[in-house]
Fold this sequence. Notes:
The complex is a heterotrimer of chains A (430), B (520) and C (429). With 430 residues, chain A is an all-alpha fold. Chain A has a domain of 245 residues: ABC transporter involved in vitamin B12 uptake, BtuC (Orthogonal Bundle). Chain A has 18 helices and no strands. In chain B, strands 6-7-8-3-9-10 form a 6-stranded mixed beta sheet, with helices on both faces. A 6-stranded mixed beta sheet of chain B has the order 16-19-20-13-21-22, sandwiched between helices. In chain B, strands 2-1-4-5 form a 4-stranded antiparallel beta sheet, covered by helices on one side. In chain B, strand 19, helix 15 and strand 20 form a beta-alpha-beta unit. In chain B, helix 14 runs parallel beside helix 15. The termini of chain B are far apart. Chain C is mainly alpha-helical. Chain C has 17 helices and 5 strands. In chain C, the strands form 2 sheets. Chain C has a 3-stranded mixed beta sheet with strand order 2-1-3. A two-stranded antiparallel ribbon of chain C has the order 4-5. In chain C, helix 5 packs across helix 11. The longest helix of chain C has 28 residues. The chains are: A mainly alpha (430), B alpha/beta (520), C mainly alpha (429).
Amino acid sequence: MTRTETGPPPAVAPATAVEPGPRGEPPAWARLARRLVEANVAVVTVLALFTALVIGAILITATTPSVLHAWSQVGSAPGHAFYVTGATIGDAYGAIFTGSVISPSALGHAISTGRGWTGAFNPISETLVKAAPLILAGLGVALGFSTGVFNIGAQGQLIAGAIAALYVGFAVHLPIGIHLPLVVLGGAAGGAVAGFIPGILKARTGAHEVIVTIMLNYVFLDLLTYLLTSRPFQQPGQSNAISRTMPATARLPHLFGSTLRANLGFVIALAAALAVAWFARRSTLGFSFRVIGANQRAGRTAGMDVRRVTVLVLVISGALAGLAGTVTLSGTDFFLSTGYGGNIGFDAITVALLGRNRPLGVVLGSLLFAALDVGGASMQVATGIPIDLSSVIQATIVFCIATPMLVRELYRLREAGGGSIQLFMKGWSS
Amino acid sequence: MRLELAGITKRFGSLVANDGVDLVVEPGEIHCLLGENGAGKTTLMNVLFGLLRHDAGEIRVDGETVEFADPGDAVRRGIGMVHQHFMLVPVFTVAENVVLGFEPTRRAGFLDRRRARADVARLSAEFGLEVEPDAVVESLPVGIQQRVEILKALQRDAQLLILDEPTAVLTPQEIQALFGIMRSLAAAGRSILFITHKLKEVMAVADRITVMRLGRVVGTARPEETNEADLAAMMVGRSVELVVRKAPARPGRDVLELSGLTVVDERGVTVVDHVDLRVRAGEIVALAGVQGNGQTELAEAITGLRPVTSGSVRVDGLDLTNATPRQVIRAGVAHVPEDRQGDGLVSGMTIAENLILDVYDQRPYARLGSLDLGEVRRQAERKLVDFDIRAASPTVPVGTLSGGNQQKVVVARELSRPVKLLVASQPTRGLDVGSIEYVHRRIVEERDAGAAVLIVSSELDEVLALGDRIAVMFRGRITGVVAPGTGRERIGLLMAGMEEADLPPSAEGEDGAVTALDLT
Amino acid sequence: MSSSPIALSPAALGAPDRRLVSLGRVRGMGVFLVLLGVITLFGLSLSIPPSEHAQFLLTAPPAVSVPPLSMPVRWVNVPLAVLCAALGALLIARGRRRGTYLIFGAGTVAFLWAFLAWAARGGTLNFEQLLAETLVETTPLVFGSLSGVMCERSGVINIAIEGQFLAGAFLGAMIGSATGNLWLGALAGGFAGGLFGALLAFLSLRYGADQIIVGILIDAFCLGLTNFLLAQVLTPDQTTLNSPSTFSPVAIPLLSKIPIVGPVLFDQNVFVYLAAVLLVVVNVALFSTRWGLRVRAVGEHPKAAETVGIHVLAVRYRNVILGGVIAGLGGASFTIGSVGQFSSDMSSGLGYVALAAMIFGRWRPLGALGAALLFGFSVSLQSFLAVLNVGIPSPFLAMAPYVITIAVVSGLVGRVRPPGADGVPYRRD
């Protein structure tokens, strides 16, 4: 009665769209036009983004004093009210774009003077920095979703991974060629251990992973707080809750020179996306994951070991989240403090939903979310509108993605031919 | 109450489930609605009960046209329904279930539990439906649960009672008891609409019969004017032969040996109770019994899906007691599970993928942990032909196939391995006639190729047609092992819990003699 | 019918009451208590010198009606250890009978008392204040878990409690501050929670979106929205918009004069009383009224409810919105009940703890109360133990509720049985 449906398997979807024979086929432009008004994945995603931007615009309009002031005098100067509203919204969204992708003026300046390239490319570099951990943790959550396991514990697993990576970082001394891979592996292992706990509990006792992983998030946060004030993690000579720093041999090298923070972490994230894509479609273990995600009983009847898969899913999912913690630690932060990781663990859930559990989708979704975060900070600096607007926009996008039927009705779209894109998880009982 | 359905049409997308159905039920009449699975009977009843809205046609009660927006409306007009899948809340008591929706209350909406209990007791006594008002429903046997369903309808003063496939879960004797209840209700002036696909029951109890096929009414009759063969022909549209053609079995060595097999389920109930049974190579043993008497659990225990509490399972000399499903499969056991869509298939995945659920990690499909998708597809294309699976391509999601083709996918997968023992539970449930014949033929072929076959079926016709020996289960025990020629009445008594030894010597002659007790 | 060969045995008609706790769980609880007793005996009693005393302050300083209680730790804890173990043994011996949770609760209290005596050895513990703070920590959890009970008993999973807390806290503070009327603030808090309850209902019931996903998204949305509005609207105008006063304690005549428990239970602000009233009302309504029977039927077997004329979706809409209102009131209790202003992420995950309390309490209001009290106690204990310098690092104490919850969902409670249709979307075919 409960099931996990993540749409038809990707490789199948195109093949199942039974088109009429060549003679009866409408011309290409007509097919394209039809695709644009039906509720397929691309159209729903674009409309979700659009809806979120509209809601963001409404929020800005309703809360910015200058705009409200202009509207209070709408009787005497109606054009002015519209102008101020449009300008404020335009400035805000413009700042998000220039702050996260590229600033045309900075680029023009760099081209004309030959200097300031760093400034021009810094926004996109920051977006890549921010996207890397989201991709990694999002891949982990997505892998869980498509296997019917709801891992809300990316936050805790990320912290566990960072703790392990940090320990490998400061406790051993090796040349970078050996040390860095060890640190990355250590981070993955830390996350894997944190994922193993809900996995084994679910497999052995039936404890629902949603509850266990939520609780473990807080356990690992508290564990981190403890470690930060005790040996050997605390920075020697410090009384604050600050950890030791990563040595140079344990830091991820920059990709585009030392002034831009974009680092190897993004490459690791892309590699992980490729690996997960291969794993899900082509590996035998991934096949069993998909079967058990779609119908656990059928998998069991066919001889698959459901418990083993449950544990493995959470271990792999945790390892990916651990990697997310490692790339932020070894790539940009270099030390741990209380509350490490911010909201990455929860954003990973929304990113997985946005990407519909497909690796490419997770990568694109993470880039979008990272851009909104990075650009949101620029917006706050430039216009004074709080960065939290980005979180509202992000949540609204995913609301729409999770309820494609709402988008369909809102925009009067036709039903897509290629099957539904509804996302389903499980109730408590199974 | 006089009920009249005129031109009822119900479509689901492009599928027409009911196509201009006309039906009249007179007061005090037992009216049978006969049809195969998928003929549209249940859809029609859901329309009548307000669970579905019809696209065209009219419902008239005592001459007055009515519209049912929801079941509440139907109940207020005196229509009661006993659903095929009981509409009872498992954790509620009998009394709570009976009064739900029509609860007696005291001030401020507080439940009057005493009155609820009294209501149940009064109705029980009035209609001879004995039941304990305070028992929790999920702890009751299905026969009693059905009484609760009937009581529920009577508590709402139903003048027309719809019984949707009510006999599927009952023993022959419980069925007789149910017929008695139906007759006494009809005698009291209430109308009964009895839905079934079992000809014998229709002939036994109906005042009038309406036959449906593919969503249409194809005929009406009175039992005294017709016979089972005619009804069957009307039902399926061609004359069918329920007999499976097979040569006499030539049994070889013992393949499946169960000794003292006992299974206690998660609720602590002993569902399989010291079962001793042998199935030999080259024979089909059919396990008969009313559903819910431990057959399912027995099959699951053999195939490693359910822990064995005591006793042992051996296949070809190998001890498989409490082995994992994987070990059981590797030992040469094929399993066609009872719930095709729940246990046999992953409906969202392709036919090709479903065909390798059991061997996905083995050559030629996999190498070094990586799937060979080309090989998977090639093998699947071959099996579509070999097993007569009608599908556009092996990349079609298996959930889009018809029930018969889905079952063929399961059979194709299970019979593609070397098979020593085939365990098939309800292998033809819900299939069309063509698929039934195909599956039966495949099972016999497997037997003739030297496999031991254990069939679990609650269809007595299938058991009689397929089995070389018939074992009957009741409340977890094997009450007898008989030859297929044994009379239905006798098997019915075994299904009702009589021990073989307690039965009088079988009627001689046409029924065939009981074989020597083969309980080992 | 008398001719039926299957005589109906009493066993076939009446069945063991499945509402009793399962035997395995009773034994598990018994073993757990025995272990606690052993730990208490060796770890908390015999290990300390006989002369050490612990002092419990039973009355807050102004009212000196009860003198402090001074106890020789060893000689108090040995009998408590024996009592705890004996209650455990009793559970094992009795098996499945009524009153299991009562005995288990008594054993747990005995252990906790011994633990406090041990922790306070050679010092003083302000016992009354500990109880008072436990109550403060427990109140929002009660609102939250009641919200969960309302939703999940009707078959809708509510993971949005956290978001509804935040929304209620925010709007409660803003309206309470802007109007200067705390009652309006409370009303606004309930409204905000109800609004997001309605959103959860709308998206999951009307559009069939997954309830867990929608819940998590509401949490994310509310966190972002309240942060945005805090920075954009409240902070620039802090004095008018984010400075509500708080409800002051209302002493109930007579009852508040009872020593020790009186001031703790009967001299509280309106939210504590409201939580208590809601607790009783929901519990009685759920198990003794027609409304409750129908709600539970919808949560267990919606199709069965529909066939007897109950409108499944209407029941769910109503319950989910009501649940949202309750959570929103709980949220308001953060701002206008205790702190007096809204701050970023001020529920800090308590919505999830409330969810855990509901599950621990087996989807029953009174069970959830027990769990909420335990969590509230362990949170408030932290600051006291820090003062007493027990030697347990405070992060580990902070972990306790979460670790207990994990232990509970995976061991003590085992496979808890949620409402049969919890989280399952309902469609009429």
